[in-house]
Write a structure and sequence with these properties.
The chain has 239 residues and is an alpha/beta fold. 46% of the residues lie in helices and 15% in strands. It is built from 9 helices and 8 strands. It has helices spanning 18-29, 36-49, 61-66, 100-110, 113-126, 139-143, 157-170, 178-194, 216-231, and strands at 7-12, 32-35, 73-77, 84-88, 91-92, 132-136, 149-154, 207-210. Strands 2-6-1-7-8 form a 5-stranded parallel β-sheet. Strands 3-4-5 form a 3-stranded antiparallel β-sheet, with helices on one face. Helix 4 (100-110) packs parallel to helix 8 (178-194). The radius of gyration is 17 Å and the shape is globular. Mean pLDDT is 91; it is low at 234-238.
Length: 239
């Protein structure tokens, strides 16, 4: 039986591994993968590198909004690794957008209405032909409310902070402490869930994936099983 092509929306908190699991799922089922978090991080990097911040370190919303037309975000596959990488105005910024410098400000940028409207429009255009996996904060609630498969990923703040800190250490950042990462994770949670524009929340028809105590293999299998059920038209609606 031929499977129907669907849209897969994966939402959830920061540092839950959404991007990694979404990439893996897309690769296994032959779908395109779109990392919307990387798009917001790229806009944040643009703001930081172009002096679009205030004296107190916050983002200058007016200045950034005025320059949105100068920001071009694309995704290209690295021929060596086979992984999709983020490009900002033609330059690969995959490493830079994962830094704590960007992480500390991305939630501020992501709550700006003009930024969200501009990126949501791009994301919706990317999904018109279906056959995509997209992860972020509002994919199943705002970008694709009619997505056939919605997953809401969560884990404890402490678990997520440990994961994020381990990633930073692996990339050579030995100056950022676990406590700093935990504070950043909790602050991002607060901003993401309370912002006026498209706050993070679980869609009514989303399946919850709490991976606090799951291995990567277990969560990947969980996603494949759910995809098989939905794409074959046997979804029973239990979540």
């Amino acid at each position: 039986m031929e499977r129907k092509r669907i849209i897969i929306a994966i939402d959830g908190f920061s540092s839950t591994g959404k991007s990694t699991m979404a990439k893996t799922l897309a690769r296994r089922i032959g779908y395109a993968y779109i990392d919307t978090g990387a798009m917001y991080r790229a806009v944040t990097l643009f703001a930081l590198d172009n002096g679009l911040t205030n004296g107190d370190g916050t983002v200058n919303e007016t200045a950034l909004t005025a320059q949105l037309g100068e920001i071009a975000i694309t995704f290209n596959v690295n021929p060596t690794t086979g992984q999709s990488e983020t490009y900002l105005n033609g330059q690969c910024v995959e490493r830079e957008i994962r830094s704590m410098r960007v992480s500390s400000m991305v939630s501020q940028v992501a709550k700006i209405a003009a930024v969200r409207r501009a990126l949501v429009a791009q994301q919706q255009a990317m999904g018109r032909s279906k056959g995509i996996v997209m992860d972020g904060r509002d994919i199943g609630t705002v970008v694709f409310p009619d997505a056939e498969m919605k997953v809401y990923v969560t884990a404890s703040a402490e678990t997520r902070a440990h994961r994020r800190h381990d990633e930073l250490v692996a990339k050579g950042d030995t100056s950022t402490t676990y406590e700093e990462v935990l504070h950043n994770v909790m602050e991002r949670d607060r901003i993401d869930t309370t912002r006026a524009e498209s706050p993070l929340r679980k869609a009514d028809d989303a399946y919850t994936l709490d991976n606090s105590h799951m291995t990567i293999a277990e969560q990947d299998q969980w996603l494949i099983d759910l995809y098989d059920k939905i794409s074959e038209g046997t979804n029973d609606g239990n979540n």
